[in-house]
Amino acid sequence: xxELNGDDTIVAVxxxxxxxxxxxxxxxxxxxxxxxxxxxxxxxxxxxRDQHTHTIHHGFFSDKKNERIDEVLVNLxxxxxxxxxxxxxxxxxHGGMRITRRILETLVRGGARPAEPGEFxxxxxxxGKIDLTQAEAVLDLIRAKSDxxxxxxxGQLQGKLSERIEKLKEALLKISAHLEASLDFPDERLEVSxxxxxxxxxxxxxxxxxxxxxxxxxxxxxxxxxxxxxxGRPNVGKSSLLNAxxxxxxxxxxxxxxxxxxxxxxxxEITGFSVRLVDTAGLSISxxxxxxxxxxxxxxxxxxxxxxxxxxxxxxxxxTREDELIFSKLHGKNFLVVVNKSDxxxxxxxxEIRSFExxxxxxxxxxxxxxxxxxxxxKIERELLQTKPAQxxxxxxxxxxxxxxxxxxxxxxxxxxxxxxxxxxxxxVDLKAAIEALRELIGEVYSEDLLDVIFHExxxxx
Length: 462
What we know:
15 helices; flat; 7-stranded mixed beta sheet; Four Helix Bundle (Hemerythrin (Met), subunit A); 3 domains; 45% helix; alpha/beta
């Protein structure tokens, strides 16, 4: 593992920039307490370093000239009972930009270094307070867009994924130890039984890893929101539906067919779910020009990527060949039929919408009057609940998926070597590499480049 310097004292504003009721300035490092103490005048007598951990102290923060900057509350967290594992001091001041800037400048001139993005969480990882999956969960928690993504991130932060990976790693270590014993004590004739037992145990671990690997698409949808695609032929009200669900004029709407030439994507929360709502160009049998063809090609791409489709049809016109074509493209996909323009006289024959045993997949709405929109949201929620994973433990990052895929493939190789009765040494090479892949996932082994990539996404104060 690389030697990373985490002993110097760092400081950053932990609250968002701008004016607010309060701001929090976070300091971490060996000199954190003595640094803040040099500029903090407590209301009650006593040194800050002599106070108990996890205590709050009232007083005034002054600069080097002993000129008061602000009335503050100082939170004290002593090592190792802190988030970073070091001494941490959090200064709660009034949330004015000038105040926070002066306090920050005073601390930097006093010897602290401005923190890099995610450096507080990075130190928590390096000091063994959290593992790498938990560190990633901190950012997921901050960026959670829905109750579902919040629940997933919180579970990962609490170590649920780490515990599962740790159990798989321990199982593989036992298998490895068993096989090594058969090499070290050949007279005990352990090899035959070792092969049979280890084959079964490797297959059990592979089953667990296969389940984890298969959870990635669902986990990604929970973290970023499932891609919900509004699709239909031109001029049926797709852009109007986007605007109606967002309750704002996001997409340009007109009576001219083909107004939408490119896909528009917006985030929307529907009863606890974050949804990536996409308005697409109308699918037509014949494109008028190159722009039409490009828009249709983009729509075809979303047909492959979407997790839920809102198939919009015009209830005031008869069913068309274009409707039939789009309907056929949705075969085997998760979708709802949204019959728009219910405020106009109905021309659509319900019998034309075939393959439905009930009306549960059909929703009549009017984007102009708002009729039926709440019912549509309930049906969208129902569809999302059906796609939500039964298990709370899912992979949410591509790095996780690649690590378990690597482990699965290496276990497959070791299993085949066992089945072919090849030398145990060859089995152990792949088996130990699989263990290493799982160790990389939770951060027991890592590179500085990997940490830079992960923590660069964090805000400075976290």
